[in-house]
Amino acid sequence: ITWKTDVEKSKNACSNGPAALIAARLYRFYDKAGASGGQSKEEYLIQAKKIYAWLRETLFDEQTGAVADNIAANGKINRNWIFTYNQGTFLGAAHELYKITGDERYLADAVLAARHVVERMSNNRGVLSDATSGDGGLFHGIFFRYFVKLINEKSLDYPTRKQFHDYLTHLATVMTENGINHSTMLYGGSWWKAPADNANVGLTPHVTGCMLMEAMCVLEPLK
Questions:
Q1: Closest alpha carbon to 213 in 115, 127, 141
Q2: How far apart are CA 191 and CA 173, in angstroms?
């Protein structure tokens, strides 16, 4: 699935990850509802698997868990751009397919993509890069949305679940204690520096902060 019409034949993780997610969720929706949705519900699952398989084969590094941003019309893969939101939708699609099929390979892919963020995209203080403006201000939030669903997956082995659980909790703690202005309750995208009382705060980083808090609200306790 190409990214957008003014970039010729650039096929991106940001268009294929969400497409696989949508197809998988449509299958689950119509399967639960007992309706066809205008076509056989199996077609949605076929498409989800097909799109995911292309994404995995083309942009996923099965050694590191990195999801490359895109493949250009000339066949060159941009492996220099690794973003949290692409990691998030990839692992989200893998997790959806695992829940449908029970195939452990999907769960293993989701864990590897998540671990890439936790272990390779975080600094030595255990947090992600600051993201204070523009589209990039929302990238981490998209990752959190799908990451927390994976953490709550009961099939995860305990050490992995604890690693991910502790990581998300650490991020939320750092943001709450250091990144949020407790007078205005605004978050500007910097983990360790709260915005001033009179500062303008971008919508995208603030929404990321909200999505992290949302993730903490649905995070299930370790047992």
A1: 141
A2: 10
* pTM of the predicted structure, to 2 decimals: 0.95
In the block, tokens 């060159």 appear at 76
Q: Is 140 strand, coil or helix?
A: helix
CB contact burial 68-96 (16+ within 10 A = b; e otherwise): bbbbeeeeeeeeeebbbbbbbbbbbbbbb
- CB count within 10 Å of CB 178 equals 13
What CA–CA distance (Å, rounded) separates 6 from 74? 16
- At residue 45 the predicted structure's pLDDT band, cuts being 50, 70 and 90, is very high
- Sort 6 into a burial class: Cβ within 10 Å, 0-12 / 13-18 / 19+: exposed
Each residue's pLDDT tens digit, 17-27:
999 999 999 99
In the predicted structure, residue 35 carries a pLDDT above the cut 70 = no
Strands 180-181 and 70-71: unpaired
Q: What DSSP line would sit under 20-59, residue for residue? A: HHHHHHHHHHHHHHT--TTS-HHHHHHHHHHHHHHHHHHH
Q: How far apart are CA 179 and CA 190, in angstroms?
A: 6
DSSP state of 84: H
